[in-house]
Amino acid sequence: MDSPAPRKIIHVDMDAYYASVEQRDDPSLRGLPIAVGGGGPRGVVATCSYEARAFGVRSAMPGARARRLCPDLLFVKPRFEVYRAVSGQIREIFARFTDIIQPLSLDEAYLDVTVNKPGIASATRVAQEIRRMIRAETGLTASAGVSYNKLIAKLASDQNKPDGICVVPPAEGAAFIAAMPVRRIHGVGPVTARRMQALGIETGADLRARDLAFLQAHFGSAADFYYRAARGEDDRPVRERQSRKSVSVEDTFFDDLIDRDALVTELDRIAASLWTRIEKAQAWGRTVVLKVKFADFRIITRSRSFAAPVRSAEQLAQAGRELLLAQLPLPLGARLLGLGVHNLEAEEESEDGAQFALAL
Asked: Active site at which residues (predicted)?
């Protein structure tokens, strides 16, 4: 039997998305090093412009460290409602070409264009058209990776950033992976990368040189994925919809919260934001989960389950308050509070296709 024709997968990744939206909307920020997020001593960089990245500033970096690296760094308060709206515009562009779309976040998604609506034979041309439309209709740039599977398409989208495209055909997939540092392979986290490096595995070629038994001895159940990834193999489908397992909102505070009233006030605000998301997604859950991160970064979660899904904002807020009050006093103070609902009755996908965690 003939083997099936290779799939045509595109991974689209917006360039410095939040920062680019801010520079688009405020011309005075263009060409300047900016960071979206909290600029105080407890703040965190959500994302930053390429001008800031030139100084070593990166996403998830503490704001204080970012300022040390780039004294002229400008912090901009996030506008998530704008980022979600623009993401919707981008998603509409994707839908002109295919219905098989798997969002990973507001600013990136996989598309299966093996069969596409305009009937374009070349996936490269589809990616070029998508990037052109995004620029024309949103004023933003996107990078794209085009390949025969998700693993390589995602790696390829990062090759020629910003505003670039990288195409890896099936005949070149194994060589593309071979030259890749293992720390860049999606699915190999920082801890695993360090373990691999300790074993002399620095590149995809080094990984391919180890047999499956060796990988199983050192990496257990993940060994099969690493073995196949090193050979450029990945048969995961692009999923049109992802099952939502929970809906949650969390917030990191400028100062650790110890006072009871301050903690309750913040949790009530988080509960109100969460309820808005629950109603919009029609995602009703039976289990309310509280998350607390302490000043020493230790995290606890506490939960309460109900016989039926939580159906009112007050029931949600009250459950959260009871979980929180049971933990008081908090001698170390709370650096972060979060509230979520699990055991969902309806698994409707929200507009951003992913759990939204608000961390300012």
From this structure: 108
Residues 254 and 336 in one domain: yes
Sequence ranges of the binding site for Mg(2+): 13, 107
Q: How many CB atoms lie under 10 A from the CB of residue 349? A: 15
Whether residue 360 lies inside any domain: the answer is no
Look up the pTM and report it. Answer: 0.69
The residue behind tokens 């703040």 is: 43
Rounded-to-integer distance, Cα 304 and Cα 318, Å: 11
In the prediction, which pLDDT does 323 show?
96
How many other β-carbons are positioned within 10 Å of the β-carbon of residue 283?
21
Closest CA to 148 of 11, 19, 28, 268: 11
Maximum distance among all Cα pairs of the chain, rounded to whole angstroms: 70
The answer to whether residue 199 sits within a structural domain is: yes
- Highest mean pLDDT: which range of 184-188, 245-249, 321-325: 321-325
Q: Mind telling me the catalytic residues?
A: 108
Q: The domain that contains 223 carries what CATH number?
A: 1.10.150.20
CA distance 327 to 132: 53
Which residues are within 8 A (CB) of 27 and not within 5 positions of it... i.e. 6 or more apart? Answer: none
